[in-house]
Amino acid sequence: MKLAVNIDHVATLREARGENEPDPVAAAVVCELAGAEGIVCHLREDRRHINDRDVRLIREMVKTKLDLEMAATDEMLKIACEILPDVVTLVPEKRKELTTEGGLNISQDKKRYEEFIRELQSKEIAVSLFIDPEPVNIDLSVELNADIIELHTGKYANTRTEKDQINELSKIAVTARMASELGLIVTAGHGLNYNNIFPILNIHEIREVSIGHSLIARSVFTGLQKAVEDMLSIISKNR
Ligand code: PXP
């Protein structure tokens, strides 16, 4: 199972102060050095975290695979065709949401998605559709000639009872198998963390997980002790 790291929230921290650190471009390099096999970033319409400069530089720096998450808008299509990420993951986007709330509603606008996907593929960009784990979405993804589907694990991650968890996991497993048998590459993501990832690892059709928030959150604590020690060392040596 491959790990793709979503670095959006490094940029969230930068934007909290409107400064230029921490830099998500540097974060992408560190993640790759640590063994991540892909870097994901979401360029939102409102540029609330990742911005155009980040995407351009991340494209230059990433050596594994750059997956650009974006909404299916004309503006984003133009940017993707200029930047040429390895993969574009199409996600629904709402202005007021804190994070992507659900999978794509492909059936609503099938023709537009079809043209959008064709346009990206004509630039040799693989297209991934972020979908809820429902069989109808797999059929639609095949119809639209997507290369990859990313199964939305957010509902699974938010379950509170064992029964609901089993139910959501079985939807993920069934749709992963169905998609794989139909020739789609299967990935998964959203809300995965150091506790809930284990059952996902048992679903062998899932080739990659995309993880952001929990990983960046953990890095605060795994790195905080050293950051304090470094500052204390500067203070004690220079007074
Ligand atoms: N996959 C997609 C399509 C997403 O939109 C996100 C959130 O940006 C993720 C994966 C990562 O989710 P999380 O930050 O909860 O790990």
Report on the structure:
By secondary structure, the chain is an alpha/beta fold. It has one domain (2-236): Aldolase class I (TIM Barrel, Alpha-Beta Barrel), CATH 3.20.20. Helix content is 48%, strand content 17%. The protein is built from ten helices and eight strands. The chain has helices at residues 8-17, 24-33, 52-61, 74-83, 110-122, 135-143, 154-157, 162-181, 198-201, 213-237, and strands spanning 2-6, 38-42, 66-70, 87-90, 126-131, 148-152, 185-189, 206-211. The chain has an eight-stranded parallel beta barrel with strand order 1-2-3-4-5-6-7-8, surrounded by six helices. Strand 2, helix 3 (52-61) and strand 3 form a beta-alpha-beta unit. The longest helix has 25 residues, at 213-237. It starts with a strand and ends with a helix. The model has no long low-confidence stretch (mean pLDDT 96). It binds pyridoxine-5'-phosphate. Residues 6, 8, 42, 69, 89, 91, 99-100, 130, 150, 189-192, 210-214 line the site of pyridoxine-5'-phosphate.
Ions and ligands: pyridoxine-5'-phosphate
In the CATH scheme, the class would be: Alpha Beta
**End-to-end gap:** 50 Å
What share of the residues lie within helices?
40-55%
Q: Radius of gyration over alpha carbons?
A: 19 Å
Question: How much of the polypeptide forms β-strand, as a percent range?
Answer: 15-25%
| Largest sheet: spatial strand order | 1-2-3-4-5-6-7-8
Q: How many structural domains are formed by the residues?
A: 1
Number of helices: 10
CATH architectural group: Alpha-Beta Barrel
